[in-house]
């Protein structure tokens, strides 16, 4: 009988210890590949706490803003022309970012790593001159590079950028990038590192195993893991 009760207690603690590990917050990032503030965010904030600490607890939705004009063609569809502040290279950069989203679909971590790398190696040289990085810096193999090179020349990426930009316009917001929505609430970054960290911590305050990280203390997640391991060992002993 004692063994049965101990097994029940073990199961309850196991559920409590692991239930919060899958909790995530949702962040939408609206940006452009050569917008200077967007690059500043991607090159700095994404390499600092809390992003590095919380990354696996975030669902990122990356949306490219690429202004366009449309005109009907003889086939009854539309032809689109993009115009970014930094010219054709910024448009091409947006296409690479959008194609990466397609390639790394279901692989959020790999998409974030590519986006970080591509942004880090993008240089805005003047108002209309952008130097994009070699794909070899940010991709692992020839299949990835070939996919991206083919994708940026296709129609699908054009439609994707148009849809993304069209949806952003429906929000009717001031286009001062980068624009972030944290759990549906807009946050204007504007280089405010400390405020962004504070905002992140406030939004994850309901996730028990992350609140202590926000306070700079030892995370409850480690306590949960230690408790889980202890209970597993205890259960093993009791099973004999």
Automatic annotation (TrEMBL):
Transmembrane spans: 217-234
Q: Where is the signal peptide?
A: 1-22
Keyword annotations from UniProtKB, A to Z: Glycoprotein, Membrane, Secreted, Signal, Transmembrane, Transmembrane helix
Q: InterPro entries under this entry?
A: Interferon-induced_GILT (IPR004911)
A Pfam family? GILT
Top-level taxon of origin: Eukaryota
UniProt subcellular location: Secreted
Quick check: keyword Secreted in the entry?
A: yes
Q: Does the keyword Secreted apply?
A: yes
Sequence similarity: Belongs to the GILT family.
**Protein name, please?**
Uncharacterized protein LOC108566377
Write the gene name.
Answer: LOC108566377
């Amino acid at each position: 009988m004692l063994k049965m009760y101990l097994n029940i207690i073990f199961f309850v603690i196991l559920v409590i210890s692991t239930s919060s590990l899958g909790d995530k917050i949702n962040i939408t990032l609206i940006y452009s590949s050569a917008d200077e503030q967007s690059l500043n965010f991607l090159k700095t904030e994404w390499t600092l706490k809390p992003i590095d600490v919380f990354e696996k607890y975030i669902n990122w939705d990356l949306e490219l803003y690429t202004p366009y004009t449309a005109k009907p063609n003889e086939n009854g569809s539309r032809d689109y022309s993009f115009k970014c502040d930094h010219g054709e290279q910024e448009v091409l950069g947006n296409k690479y970012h959008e194609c990466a989203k397609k390639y790394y679909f279901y692989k959020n971590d790999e998409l974030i790593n590519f986006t970080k790398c591509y942004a880090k190696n993008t240089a805005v040289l003047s108002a209309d001159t952008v130097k994009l990085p070699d794909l070899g810096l940010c991709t692992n193999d020839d299949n990835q590079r070939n996919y991206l090179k083919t994708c940026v020349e296709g129609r699908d990426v054009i439609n994707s950028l148009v849809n993304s930009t069209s949806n952003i316009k429906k929000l009717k917001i001031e286009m001062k990038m980068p624009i972030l929505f944290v759990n549906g609430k807009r946050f204007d970054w504007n280089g405010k590192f400390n405020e962004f960290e504070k905002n992140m911590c406030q939004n994850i305050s309901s996730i028990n195993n992350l609140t202590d990280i926000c306070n700079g203390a030892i995370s409850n997640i480690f306590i949960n893991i230690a408790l889980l391991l202890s209970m597993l060992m205890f259960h093993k002993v009791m099973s004999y």
